[in-house]
Automatic annotation (TrEMBL):
It comes from the Eukaryota. Keywords: Metal-binding, NAD, Oxidoreductase, Zinc. One of its GO terms (biological process) is formaldehyde catabolic process. Residues 17-355 form the Enoyl reductase (ER) domain. The keyword RNA-binding does not apply. One of its GO terms (cellular component) is cytosol. Its cofactor is Zn(2+). GO terms for molecular function: S-(hydroxymethyl)glutathione dehydrogenase [NAD(P)+] activity; zinc ion binding. Belongs to the zinc-containing alcohol dehydrogenase family. Pfam families: ADH_N (PF08240), ADH_zinc_N (PF00107). This is Alcohol dehydrogenase 1.
Length: 360
């Protein structure tokens, strides 16, 4: 391409300081260095983790930054040493890298990777997709089907994999089981979808927003419970509904109080509760007897998926109509409207807003 090996001046939404609106600025994106890829971002979505960074992270050394990590785009150019990707490839940037060489990448038990995210300056999660162009390390890129619509499959870059995989890969939901999913944003709805795909017989969706009930059923929920409708703790309500508790629970809110409720909603003996919601602000706690009685409490990031290996398969599942994606998208906007998209998410008025950054 004509821009290869040159600095590109482009538009980006910059977070200059915490809890302030993003500012559309012209930034300079350097050419990719060794083992790096420069990507033209076609579409990116606003995820709650972006809000966490903007609204709850007060460390000044984290700003200024270009947020965004749930995206899809087209390779513009590659640096020396890159052989797996070429200009024109459709790709999804990965906030969990996969070097395929470290002890974590070589283990089937985790999707963690020992290698760093790469350049930190003005980058968030090693991706920074609220920009027309971004540079990422080749180990943090998944090449996908060239026919995939990027304004849809961008959601596979975070929310859908995170929730779906938490049910299928981390919890290992079993056929005929009973599940509860706490929090019905994109991640929670994807977890509901994962529970259904795994063959769960009963899927109880839990949220304090009654407007989420119908959406949850689209993805496979059999029941909806609003904790505000009950005077008892939600764990007691679920225990009474399920003869002692659910087999699997997934916390998709990022609240330590809800994490505890999700654990306590599990049946003793074999119940498994998975922490999916992102937070690092508070310690979480539970009574030791909850675990002594046989429950398992575990965490999940990006649904346990190894990005470079597994994301192309998730895109294929969508293309084969085996995975819902379109149903998550409630709004489409432009990069210039990023602050409107953030307000929608802050007030629970959307599932996912896709920002159309560049033409496909």
């Amino acid at each position: 391409m004509a821009t290869a090996a040159k600095v590109i001046k482009c538009k980006a939404a910059v977070a200059w300081e915490p809890n302030k609106p993003l500012v559309i600025e012209e930034i300079e994106v350097a050419p990719p260095q060794a083992n790096e890829i420069r990507i033209k971002i076609v579409a990116t979505a606003v995820c709650h983790t972006d809000l966490h960074q903007l609204l709850e992270n007060t460390h000044e050394d984290c700003f200024p930054t270009v947020l965004g990590h749930e995206a899809a785009g087209i390779v513009e150019s590659v640096g020396p040493g890159v052989t797996e990707y070429k200009p024109g490839d459709k790709v999804i940037p990965l906030f969990i890298a996969q070097c395929r060489e470290c002890r974590f990448c070589k283990s089937p038990r985790t999707n963690q990777c020992d290698k760093a995210w790469g350049k930190k300056v003005l980058q968030f999660s090693g991706t920074s997709t609220f920009s027309e162009y971004t540079v990422v390390d080749q180990m943090a890129v998944a090449k996908i089907d060239p026919a995939a619509p990027l304004d849809k499959v961008c959601l596979i870059g975070c929310g859908i994999c995170t929730g779906y995989g938490a049910a299928v890969n981390t919890a290992k939901v079993e056929p005929g089981s009973t599940c509860a999913v706490f929090g019905l944003g994109a991640v929670g709805l994807a977890a509901v979808m994962g529970c259904k795909a795994a063959g769960a017989k009963r899927i109880i969706a839990v949220d304090i927003n009654p407007e989420k009930a119908e959406k949850a059923k689209v993805f496979g929920a059999t029941d909806f419970v609003n904790p505000k409708d009950h005077s008892k703790p939600i764990s007691q309500v679920l225990s009474e509904m399920t003869d002692g508790g659910v087999d699997f629970s997934l916390e998709c809110v990022g609240s330590v109080a809800v994490m505890r409720s999700a654990l306590e909603s599990c049946v003793k003996g074999w119940g498994v509760s998975v922490i999916v919601g992102w937070t690092d602000l508070e310690d979480f706690s539970a009574r030791p007897l909850q675990l002594i009685a046989g429950r398992t409490w575990k965490g999940s990031v990006f649904g346990g998926f190894k990005g470079r290996d597994d994301v192309p398969g998730m895109v294929k599942a969508y293309m084969d109509k085996k995975l819902k994606v379109d149903e998550f998208i409630t709004h489409n906007m432009t990069l210039d409207q990023v602050n409107d998209a953030i307000e929608l998410m802050k007030h629970g008025k959307c599932i996912r807003t896709v920002l159309n950054v560049s033409p496909q």
